[in-house]
Inverse folding.
């Protein structure tokens, strides 16, 4: 904990150094700070903490935060964010939020067991908890009000169906983080509904050249592959490159969404995207806690609220292009 | 070592370090020879188990994968011969790509301006690493661990502050992009095979580093400071300058790798690169660099990178169960390294 705190300070210092040396940050940074200050909501000021299992610098979680901040600004909420990919450390961060006496906690249950005890403490301290993204099965059991997320298996099944519509026979599911249950579930779901044959491929998500060469290698080894499913938007573009290079006509589709993906969807290089609407997860969770605190409401009546899968294709890409462009979709 | 006890009556006994050894023995005494044999063994192994492994296209994919590790392994191996580590090397690649991309984009400048600024910034980071090490006297492991975290944080912090996103916007439509892509991330056709330009740059860097190590005074300094810094200082080797230069060498290849990352994928994820520093070190070690410094070669690191790239992609070509990917990877690396060790011991004994 302490180590990370000092690391953060040092990083802030270096941000300053880098900002000076590249002479470009002042405008954007100030603008970002301005944005987070604008609070205009009703009711007493609440403090809500979100603790996720995100790795640093992940596009997806950035969008979740943007949704949460938008809701926080509207609801007059002081929004705190922290994250650690390791279950144990994530639990410590939740404990820290409890110690801060926050008015509500939003948490992801990627490693449910690790968070069970600390969430008990939160509910004992009468702090309402909302789970997002992963953990639909455990959410209610651990005392959370409601869960906002996409059922990964259901989403995978939707992707499998889409591939059937495209007439694919042999598919590869690219997993960019080994041992991540959510990613495995997506591939398993897709495999379930996909009428052809589907295999998994592991790539090192933190190293794009390696992702590319691994997909290239897979396409060279299994030449009859006619569909590739990636589980994160940046990897889809890379898969398209690999297919082009090998001369494969494999159709690429992906989970999640980003700006570049809209262009690719429009020009047909990517067939469809399974969007779980991360913005909605962040926004909905903050809004729910605010509603609960101010009016005792529970969205969805305690049942998990599904934020996806929303399938985006060539036909629907235009409609969401402006939102993806500003990084909220 | 080379004890010639059988000829005690030799009148003028030359020092064993200056006697001429037979070419074979000299070859076997090189740091990279074990790795080379390990690489050949793996090549034959995958050639037999994976159908598509021996095709020209597969070879070009493997070379590409190897080159992206290998370019960094060149400078990392020199640094390790010089007795130091750089744990910030992996994220520095991302930093360099981010700087070039964001500088060009924010000011709508020609891409090459961003590329140049990035070179300056990255070399400065290498200089800071070296200077911190020299001035504080702390182990480079700690110093660069610190800069590793700082850079990882800054990558995200600065990117979000400037662009409000965690990835940089695509710069593929900006002026200078296609020319830069030609230099850093193009495909060439050599002898009917598609080869990534990074492969050629990699080989060129290995050649320069090898020449530097074996044929220049600076190369001797590198071995000297890695073997024993106090002794090196005592005989007049500029220890501080050599070490700083080595850190800057890592920065230079990080810049190059960053440019490849940027121009091959035109948008950069700010969280990328974490963990890659270990792969560079692994390549150097497989290639015969000692973790303690003073021994190793750039060619060895190149072969190490080749082994790593080959194993990484060979498992995919062999279509083994991907759940076991890392297990296979570890086992293959261990085998390659053991072969390396056995060969080197044999070579030493046969002298």
């Amino acid at each position: 904990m302490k180590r990370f705190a000092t690391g953060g300070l040092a990083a802030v210092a270096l941000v300053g150094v880098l900002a000076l040396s590249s002479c470009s940050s002042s405008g954007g940074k100030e603008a970002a700070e301005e944005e987070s200050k604008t609070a205009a909501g009703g009711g007493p000021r609440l403090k809500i903490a979100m603790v996720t299992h995100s790795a640093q610098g992940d596009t997806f979680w950035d969008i979740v935060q943007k949704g949460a901040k938008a809701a926080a600004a509207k609801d007059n909420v002081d929004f705190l964010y922290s994250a650690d990919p390791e279950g144990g450390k994530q639990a410590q961060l939740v404990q820290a939020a409890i110690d801060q006496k926050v008015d509500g906690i939003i948490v992801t249950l990627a490693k449910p067991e690790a968070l069970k005890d600390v969430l008990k403490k939160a509910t004992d301290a009468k702090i309402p908890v909302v789970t997002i993204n992963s953990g639909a099965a455990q959410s209610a059991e651990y005392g959370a009000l409601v869960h906002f997320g996409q059922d990964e298996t259901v989403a995978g099944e939707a992707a499998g169906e889409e591939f059937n519509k495209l007439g694919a026979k042999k598919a590869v599911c690219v997993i960019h983080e080994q041992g991540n249950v959510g990613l495995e579930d997506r591939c398993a779901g897709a495999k379930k509904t996909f009428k052809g044959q589907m295999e998994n491929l592991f790539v090192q998500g933190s190293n794009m050249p390696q992702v590319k060469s691994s997909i290239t290698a897979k396409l060279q080894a299994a030449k009859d592959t006619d569909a590739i499913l990636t589980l994160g938007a940046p990897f889809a573009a890379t898969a398209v490159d690999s297919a082009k290079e090998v001369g494969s006509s494999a159709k690429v589709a992906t989970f999640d969404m980003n700006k570049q993906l809209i262009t690719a969807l429009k020009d047909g290089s990517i067939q469809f995207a399974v969007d779980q609407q991360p913005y909605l997860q962040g926004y909905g969770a903050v809004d729910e806690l605010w509603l609960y605190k101010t009016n005792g409401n529970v969205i969805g009546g305690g049942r998990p609220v599904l934020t996806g899968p929303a399938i985006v294709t060539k036909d629907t890409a235009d409609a969401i292009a402006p939102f993806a462009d500003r990084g909220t979709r | 070592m080379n004890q010639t006890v059988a000829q005690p009556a030799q009148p003028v006994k030359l020092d064993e370090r200056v006697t001429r050894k037979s070419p074979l023995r000299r070859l076997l005494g090189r740091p990279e020879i074990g790795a080379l044999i390990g690489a050949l063994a793996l090549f034959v192994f995958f050639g037999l188990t994976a159908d598509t492994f021996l095709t020209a296209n597969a070879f070009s994919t493997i070379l590409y994968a190897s080159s992206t590790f290998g370019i960094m392994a060149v400078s990392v191996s020199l640094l390790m011969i010089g007795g130091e580590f750089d744990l910030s090397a992996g994220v520095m690649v991302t930093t360099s790509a981010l700087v070039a991309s964001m500088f060009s984009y924010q000011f709508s400048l020609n891409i090459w301006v961003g590329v140049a600024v990035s070179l300056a910034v990255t070399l400065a980071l290498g200089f800071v690493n070296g200077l911190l090490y020299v001035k504080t006297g702390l182990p480079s492991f700690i110093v660069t661990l610190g800069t590793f975290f700082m850079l990882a944080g800054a990558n995200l912090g600065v990117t979000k502050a400037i662009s409000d996103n965690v990835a940089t916007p695509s710069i593929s439509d900006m002026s200078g992009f296609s020319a830069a892509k030609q230099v850093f991330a193009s495909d060439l056709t050599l002898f009917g095979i598609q080869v990534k330009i990074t492969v050629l740059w990699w080989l060129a860097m290995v050649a320069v580093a090898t020449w530097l190590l074996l044929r220049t005074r600076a190369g001797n300094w590198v071995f000297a400071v890695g073997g024993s810094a106090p002794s090196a200082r005592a005989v007049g080797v500029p220890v501080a300058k050599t070490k700083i230069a080595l850190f800057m060498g890592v920065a230079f290849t990080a810049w190059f790798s960053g440019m490849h990352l940027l121009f091959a994928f035109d948008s950069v994820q700010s969280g990328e690169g974490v963990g890659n520093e270990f792969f560079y070190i692994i390549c150097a070690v497989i290639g015969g660099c000692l973790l303690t410094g003073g021994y190793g070669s750039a060619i060895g690191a190149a072969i190490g990178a080749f082994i790593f790239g080959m194993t990484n992609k060979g498992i995919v070509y062999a279509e083994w169960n991907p759940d076991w990917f890392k297990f296979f990877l570890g086992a293959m690396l261990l085998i390659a390294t053991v072969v390396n060790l056995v060969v080197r011991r044999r070579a030493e004994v046969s002298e």
Remarks:
- The first helix of chain B runs from residue 23 to 28.
